[in-house]
Amino acid sequence: MIVTSLLISLALGQVEPTPYVRSRVEAGNTSSQCLFWTVPTIAWQNSSVGNPNTALEAQKQSEFEAIRRSFQSWQQLFESCGNLRFSEGPLVDDRKVGYELRGDNNRNLVLFRSKRCEEVVASSDACWVEDTCGNDHDCWDSDARTIALTLTTYDEKSGIIYDSDIQLNASGFVFTTVNTPPCIPPANGRDNSCVSTDLQNTMTHEIGHLIGLDHVPQDPGSVMFPRAPPGETSKRNIDEGSHQFVCEAYPKGQASQSCVTPSLGSSGNTTVLGKQAVGCSSSGAEAWLPAMVGWALLAWRRRRGGARS
Ligand SMILES: [Zn+2]
């Protein structure tokens, strides 16, 4: 029976690695709508603070440059076969992630959080119940083993993305920008002379989430593989499968592609916003299970029309 089913799988092409996985309104449910942008330009901005752990101005600038290179890598793919572009706005003082319906202060923000909420917020603070500690106290409110978190807000009916913010966990990871060598031991990266958690590696992955890609847990060669061990820089280069996503979900000269019809122009008077926060873990093979559990717990969805978090 096993042999038979394997042969059927081979015949159906089911053992081929998945080139990419699109994010869905209901994460993992392939009958629910995909998340995608319909604007021609995604404007994004760096927080003016940069990495609070970085003292040297030159290093701060090198970090901003690494973030820009990550967007440029995707931009090159969109230029070859896609229909949108990225545009960087000026540095902003805003430290809040999320989206307000009809708000005038929304932006796609990239920021570092350098303090853990558990360490700076009293356990009695109402923000724990409201799930607003990160914004209220400018702290990392997620799992300590998570490198970065992309929070995407979208229309629950159409899957159209309104906003996506990327938070980098500088409270738990040393972000570096040099090309080589890997830090040995990994924790020695504080001076940025070796690769600890490569910023461009991390950002290239997170921007994949920002444009509507989910993790590809089966393919370590994908930029959307959910983990990145210390010293890794390979995700700076976007794999063919993720390139295929750009060409197919955002075809050049055409509208961005949904997965379920009807989608665009869906009827109804109320807009229901959905939010997804996807965390991306580090750690070596020995931490495989805890890392995956951490990721699963972080992939939640909330229905809170108009609320900001
Ligand atoms: Zn991820």
Structurally, the number of domains stands at 1
Number of strands: 11
Strand neighbour order, sheet with most strands: 3-2-4-6-5-10-11
- CATH class equals Alpha Beta
Descriptive account of the structure:
There is one protein chain. By secondary structure, the chain is α/β, with parallel strands linked by helices. It has a single domain (27-303), classed as Collagenase (Catalytic Domain) (3-Layer(aba) Sandwich), CATH 3.40.390. The chain is built from 8 helices and 11 strands. A 7-stranded mixed β-sheet has the order 3-2-4-6-5-10-11. The protein has a two-stranded antiparallel sheet with strand order 1-9. A two-stranded parallel ribbon has the order 7-8. A hairpin with a 5-residue loop joins β5 and β6 (161-169). α2 crosses α6 (199-210). The longest helix has 25 residues, at 57-81. It starts with a helix and ends in a 6-residue tail after the last strand. Keywords: Hydrolase, Metal-binding, Metalloprotease, Protease, Zinc. Pfam families: Peptidase_M10 (PF00413).
